């Protein structure tokens, strides 16, 4: 149990530090935005590039990990989407709810958690899950919200806008750059490689503090019942589905199977809140779900790690 505590507590200690620094007004209201930008535009892309250029293609090519992780996401996403859409007749709000129930915090919590659990040189699964989350999963949510807006745009225009947005995302661009470098065989100069490594090393602590700063913001007053329902889907049902797929259906190395379960058991990331803020739909439920899943995730992740390492 002490080993599990040594993995989980450092993660949430930094989140709590960010939370109290904001609550005590030591860090201003702008700190969350600025630190988040630093992580998204510099630190996480650098970490992704560093992991990819120091990994072989055979290590990263694990299609069954992709199937297990993404099936877990989309089973929850489309199940919650259908249920909430039928109940409320509001596709936009149902999409935010479905995203809140399935969108894992792979970048800000998943990468540091996997680094502490498996080692800093075993981040391939977490990196791939982060790419899938911010690209494919986020794109699907945007498409459904755009479809609900009744703006008169054609499906082609919507898909084009989503594609352009994704191409501008640094968390998508960075792995593409790393892939080109690996395929070409070009070796980065020592100084450039060390700069990338230094930036990448700052990703985990800064991301965790930024998560705490976000959680310290005022939560909108909403009914807790829906948020609790979404948290149960995210922290309990989704990892159970992925556990079954990773260990009973598909065949993959133990590191990748365990990583798939851990990454699916992560709290809800900030993506649903960003989506809600962008379209003015369901922000209260999204922020409440992120807050509750992060707090309760201390317990559920500890249980998950204990079972996987037994």
Automatic annotation (TrEMBL):
Descriptive protein name: AEC family transporter
InterPro entries in the record: Mem_transp_PIN-like
Organism: Oxalobacter aliiformigenes
Residue ranges of the TM segments: 6-23, 35-53, 65-86, 126-145, 166-186, 198-216, 228-247, 259-278, 290-308
UniProt KW keywords: Cell membrane, Membrane, Transmembrane, Transmembrane helix, Transport
Domain of life: Bacteria
Membrane topology: Multi-pass membrane protein
Subcellular location: Membrane
């Amino acid at each position: 149990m002490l080993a599990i505590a040594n993995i989980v507590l450092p993660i949430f200690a930094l989140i709590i530090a960010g939370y109290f620094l904001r609550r005590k007004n030591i860090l201003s209201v702008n700190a969350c935005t600025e630190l988040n930008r630093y992580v998204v535009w510099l630190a996480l892309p650098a970490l992704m590039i560093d992991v990819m250029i120091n990994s072989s293609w055979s290590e990263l090519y694990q299609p069954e990990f992709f199937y297990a992780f993404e099936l877990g996401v989309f089973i929850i996403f489309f199940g919650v989407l259908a249920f909430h859409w039928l109940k409320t007749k509001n596709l936009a709000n149902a999409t935010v709810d479905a995203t809140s129930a399935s969108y894992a915090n792979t970048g800000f919590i998943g990468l540091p958690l996997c680094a502490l659990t498996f080692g800093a040189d075993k981040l391939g699964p977490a990196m791939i899950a982060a790419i899938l989350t911010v690209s494919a999963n986020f794109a699907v949510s945007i498409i459904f919200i755009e479809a609900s807006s009744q703006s008169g745009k054609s499906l082609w225009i919507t898909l084009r806008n989503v594609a352009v947005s994704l191409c501008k995302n640094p968390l998508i661009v960075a792995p593409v750059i790393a892939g080109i470098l690996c395929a070409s065989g070009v070796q980065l100069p020592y100084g450039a490689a060390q700069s990338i490594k230094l930036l990448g090393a700052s990703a985990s602590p800064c991301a965790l503090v930024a998560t705490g700063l976000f959680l310290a913001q005022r939560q909108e007053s909403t009914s807790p019942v829906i948020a609790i329902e979404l948290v149960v889907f995210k922290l309990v049902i989704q990892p159970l589905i992925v556990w079954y797929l990773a260990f009973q259906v598909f065949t993959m190395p133990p590191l990748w199977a365990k990583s798939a379960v851990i990454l699916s058991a992560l709290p809800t990331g900030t993506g649903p809140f960003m989506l809600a803020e962008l379209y003015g739909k369901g922000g209260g439920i999204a922020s409440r779900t992120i807050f509750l899943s992060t707090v309760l995730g201390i317990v559920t992740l500890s249980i998950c790690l204990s079972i996987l390492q037994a």
